[in-house]
Fold:
Amino acid sequence: MSLYLLRKMIRKLPGFVIKAVPKPEPVVVDGFGSREKVGKICADAGYKSALLVTDKTVYSLGYHEKILDSLEANGIKYAVFSNIASEPTIDIISEGRSAAVGCGVDCIIALGGGSVLDSCKIIAAGAKMPRRKIKNLLDKFIYVRGKTLPIIAVPSTAGTGAEITVAAVVNNANGIKCSTVVIGLNVTHVVLDSELTIGAPESVTVYCGMDALSHGLEGCLADIKTTEEDLQKSRECVRLVFRNLPRLITTPDDIDARQNMSLAAYYGGNAINKQLVGYVHAFAHTIGAFYHIPHGKAIALCLVPVVSFQKSICMDKLAKLAVYCGFARESDDKAAAADRLLAALEQLLETCGFEKGCDLIDRKDYKKLVSMINADSINYSPPKTLSNKEIMRLLDEIRKGEKVL
Ligand SMILES: [Fe+2]
Structure:
């Protein structure tokens, strides 16, 4: 049997597996400055002591101070661990786990971007198994008897959705990024505080925004049975990005737009949990890793070519999304509605300053790239399985930034 046929046969397997994984259903607290409520959240939940985990950058910006003030005001004991790096290693996570166990905390406050949030998932799981080495926990799945320590997630960026996703991406013992699904992840609260994202550089805002949009969009197109409520959240993620990201280009301190982007990212995280992602991510992960391109920028390169390529098979879903986002009417021809959504996507990329095409991509790398894309895509639920020839054609389109006939 060819590898293509095998991939085609197991295409729906990740969808079945992810359905069986319990997902956190946190209480969402949002608003500018809402991290001041963390102390009360702890007190109301009955937590007596907390470990605040963050990274050096967020710590140096002082974003943790309002949280610590609120913990003190509510009589919650705390310790701070601010050593998380952008590429979290086993050693750093082990230190974080030791801090949690050593202080006997009953909850983790995760303040930061995707790296901090993902590290906290492993720390919260590891704290329940203090005798197990962290390196031995990092497998495809971590199974926690009962649940992890409770996590209050306070994302400092609006993009990854890591505040709610069950997977944690950290470096394994060989220094290679690996994704581990935490079974029993216990995120009890998500605090969406736009004050944390308001000072972000434009590049961070647009890269994160593209990432969030791609999670919602790929969720809408995924070949997986899901509830209407979850589908609605994925569509809302896309609509919120279309409406609010351009506002942040002209007015970066628009609080409403910032708050809406944080909500979009959260809905995008829900989409990953419930619908997984697809080929946009398989291409972006591969091109990003191979040519050292940030995730959001790689997503922006791949979005239009990959989604356009899947248009015929996803026509209904794209047309519905176009209507939901206000780019088409219910009565419009489906192909025309789908085209309007794609045109809006191109326009959004232009507004955000993304250029088409990528000179770094070299045809001589195609063999390696194709095998990486194939390996990554088997973890997702794309609407169809692409052949090697189709993947190469798409690589051509991403490289040139134009359609290849
Ligand atoms: Fe992503």
Remarks:
- The domain at 200-400 is CATH 1.20.1090.10 (Dehydroquinate synthase-like, alpha domain).
- The chain has a mean pLDDT of 95.
- The chain has 17 helices and nine strands.
